[in-house]
């Protein structure tokens, strides 16, 4: 057996550890194949069908309600299409463009602090992971009505506000 093991190691140029891992993987593969051959396919199909379609139905009803609410809100909104497109671009464009870069003075980017993602909030100067979480936690219970309301968030004082005020909005 030792001679066979040495021949395999020489042929495939593997170490003892690599050989053992390969053998264990091969054993697991064989056991998995044998187990799947003995599994009752009709029972498996029945279980997948019932739970899978229940899952799909729950997703469809959840998103259908959300979509209907969004469409109803848009149809009741008296804002022009141009304004809606402009608002969409202002609120969402930054999530597509270099999220990892911090904003610098002079950049013409405005982030809506009432709707921005954590990644977008972290682009603000001096705002890191914990501060972005704090902003999101605050806005979940209190909508920002003025940009200086952000100073109510723990970790944002006058100094940090002066760094970010040119990059934030509440529209």
Written description of the protein model:
- With 171 residues, the chain is mainly α.
- Helix content is 62%, strand content 2%.
- The chain is built from seven helices and two strands, in the order ααααβαααβ.
- Strands 1-2 form a two-stranded parallel sheet.
The first-to-last residue Cα distance is: 75 Å
| Class inferred from helices and paired strands | mainly alpha
Major beta-sheet overview? 2 strands, parallel
Predict the CATH topology of the largest domain.
DNA polymerase, domain 1
| Secondary-structure element pattern, one letter each | HHHHEHHHE
- What does the average pLDDT come to? 76
CATH level-four homologous superfamily name of the largest domain: Photosystem II 12 kDa extrinsic protein
Number of helices, where a helix is a run of at least 4 consecutive DSSP H or I residues: 7
Total domain modules? 2
Total count of strands: 2
CATH architecture of the largest domain: Orthogonal Bundle
The percentage of residues in β strands lies in under 5%
Outline of this structure?
By secondary structure, this protein is mostly helical.
């Amino acid at each position: 057996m030792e001679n066979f093991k040495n021949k395999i190691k020489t042929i495939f140029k593997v170490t003892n550890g690599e050989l053992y891992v390969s053998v264990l993987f091969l054993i697991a593969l064989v056991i998995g194949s044998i187990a799947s051959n003995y599994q009752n396919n009709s029972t498996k199909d029945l279980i997948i069908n019932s739970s899978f379609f229940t899952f799909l139905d729950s997703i469809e009803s959840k998103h259908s309600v959300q979509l209907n609410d969004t469409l109803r809100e848009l149809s009741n909104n008296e804002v022009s299409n141009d304004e809606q497109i402009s608002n969409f671009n202002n609120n969402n464009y930054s999530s597509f463009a270099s999220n990892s870069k911090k904003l610098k003075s002079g950049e013409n980017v405005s982030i809506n602090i009432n709707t921005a993602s954590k990644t977008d909030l972290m682009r603000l100067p001096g705002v890191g992971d914990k501060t972005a979480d704090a902003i999101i936690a605050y806005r979940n219970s209190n909508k920002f009505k003025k940009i200086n309301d952000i100073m109510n968030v723990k970790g944002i004082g006058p100094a940090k506000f002066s760094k970010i005020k040119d990059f934030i909005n509440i529209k």
